[in-house]
Design a protein that fits this description.
The protein is an alpha/beta fold and 344 residues long. The protein contains nine helices and twelve strands.
Length: 344
Amino acid sequence: MKKLLNTLYVATEGASLRKDGENVVVEVEGVERGRVPLHMLGGIVTFGPLFVSPPLIGACAARGLTLTLLDRSGRFEARIEGPVAGNVLLRRAQYRVAEAPVEIVKSIVLGKLGNQRAVLMRALRDHAETMPNAAAAALSTAADRIARIMRRVEFATLELEVLRGAEGEAAQLYFAVFDHLIRVPEPEMRFRGRSRRPPLDAVNALLSFVYTLLTHDCRSALESVGLDPAVGFLHRDRPGRPSLALDLMEELRPVFADRLALSLINRRQLGPSDFEARDGGAVWLSDAGRKIVLTAWQERKKDERRHDFVGEAAPLGLVPFLQAQLLSRHLRGDLDGYPPWFWK
């Protein structure tokens, strides 16, 4: 089993990162605030303006560690990495399959829909007695309709656009009832529908931030097995977009991202004071809020779940790597199909 390495997140503006021997040192205003051995890291992610020394950049490139630069709100700015790894034959197979990817897309969509339904059913199981009857009925109806879409996808011979339409239909059902999963009374923490660029409320700001973290991990997992993260199957190719990383993220984000966001809100680890309103109606996580999310994200990745296809328990942080590995095995012809990951 691959070792679960840490990702170093640096969210303090004005911080400096430098190399000292075989360590990454983080300093703020000339005072050392952290020191991490390079061999324990899988990557470094920074937020906002800060300094990274050239020797550290070179050391990361030499060791295959990616350095990802995000702005203070979590939007992607740049990525620094060393030589591209991977088997050219595997990437050729990926490009060929991308011309007719229906079977892989079907698996991705089934995984996403199954995990969306599992999130709704878990909420009903755990909290139906304390939620209003109308909310419980809405969640149950959405779960049933998503199950019908899954059956339609699984047993029908479908075209790619039909599969994309089924994924979009299920997403509308899921997010239409997402507010019922929030159990705090503050009006500032209500969900009023998905908004992205920019997020227009606190819940969307939190979801967008956690999706960024998951996309980074999925991209790193794909690159670690030699796949091209830019050439996807469900998501159309677009310059600058890691389409395959977004594909891999789809089946994982109901459990990895959505449930984490709900836990942080419902356990009151995040509240209205952890968000900032900007010009034009945009809402972003504050510096303190980002640090809370990053800590919870790292802890979440340590939780173990049984991976049914692999047949053993694995930390959630390794699931993107395992799925990337299974996808590469399918593309090489070692597996008849791509097995999605289902949360149980």
